[in-house]
Amino acid sequence: MKKIIAAAVAALVIAASGTAAQAQSRVEVGRLSCDVAGGIGFIIGSSKDMTCRFIRKGHRTEVYQGRIDKIGFDIGVTGRTQIEWLVFSGSTNRVGPRSLAGTYAGASAEATLGVGLGANWLVGGSQRGFALQPWSIQGQTGLNYSVALAGLTLY
């Protein structure tokens, strides 16, 4: 189990370090808070439904439905998961209503033994103009290990 946790931490560091410079050239425009349904990782992937809230200071909160899909090593069972991302844009004036709708792609890593943590790095949305913070905050329960490519669809 220690090797699994060490591998997950290494994957998190690699995923975040490759995107830190990109995130620094963008402007933080809000926070995306998502509730992800529990589910089962089927060794080579998983798919889970989610409900997200995009929270911006001075704006009405927007609610999105979505799905997160993973392809890679993903095995185990998780309960309901909470993920928090900071949302970055290349420009603040490109953030209109429903701007986050679209498809995102990136990487994901997580480890859970009772209570677990994870990181998800994703880029996409309308005109691929948004980046979801490399270090998302993710809390979940279950028994799970995952290092995978991730796709997120918000609608």
UniProtKB/TrEMBL annotation:
Pfam families attached to this UniProt entry: DUF992
Signal peptide: 1-23
InterPro entries: DUF992 (IPR009333)
Alphabetized UniProt keyword annotations: Signal
Domain of life: Bacteria
Protein name (database record): DUF992 domain-containing protein
Native source species: Devosia enhydra
